[in-house]
Specification:
Layout lengths: L12 E2 L5 E4 L2 E7 L8 E8 L4 E5 L5 E15 L2 E6 L3 E4 L5 E17 L1 H4 L2
C-alpha cells in the first residue's frame, strides 16, 4: 500500500508568492482577474514542465489567446498542429477542439480568455 497522496485537481495549491499549482509540473499566476475587466477577459501567466499540458478540450463560448514568453508550446488547434517558440502568439477560437503542452525545456506563456459576450458587440 502506497503512502503517496493523490493530487486533487479541483483545489489549486497556492504558494506564498501567489503562484497556483493545478497539476504537478504546471503552475500559474492570475495577472488580471475577470472581476477587474467586468468579465471581458482573464489573463494568467503559466509555466509548464516539458510534456505537461491540458488534455483535448473545447471552450464553447470563449476564444483563447496565448503569447509564448519562453520555451516552446506545442498546440493542436482543430486539425492544425504548431510548435510555437518564444515570441509567438496563438489563438484558439471558441468551439474549436484544442490541446496544448510544453516542449523542452519548458514553456512560459500568458493565456488570455476573451468573453464571447464582448465578441458579439
Amino acid at each position: 500500500m502506497s503512502n503517496a497522496k493523490a493530487f486533487d485537481r479541483s483545489a489549486p495549491q497556492q504558494s506564498e508568492d501567489g503562484w497556483l499549482q493545478t497539476t504537478p509540473g504546471e503552475r500559474f499566476k492570475i495577472r488580471i482577474r475577470a472581476e477587474e475587466t467586468q468579465a471581458a477577459y482573464t489573463m494568467l501567466e503559466m509555466v509548464a514542465d516539458p510534456r505537461n499540458g491540458v488534455p483535448m478540450h473545447i471552450h464553447k463560448n470563449e476564444d483563447e489567446h496565448f503569447i509564448v514568453l519562453e520555451g516552446t508550446l506545442h498546440t493542436a488547434n482543430g486539425d492544425k498542429r504548431l510548435d510555437a517558440p518564444a515570441g509567438t502568439s496563438v489563438t484558439v477560437f471558441a468551439s474549436v477542439v484544442s490541446v496544448a503542452s510544453a516542449s523542452a525545456p519548458r514553456a512560459s506563456l500568458t493565456p488570455t480568455t476573451i468573453s464571447a459576450r464582448l465578441q458579439s458587440s
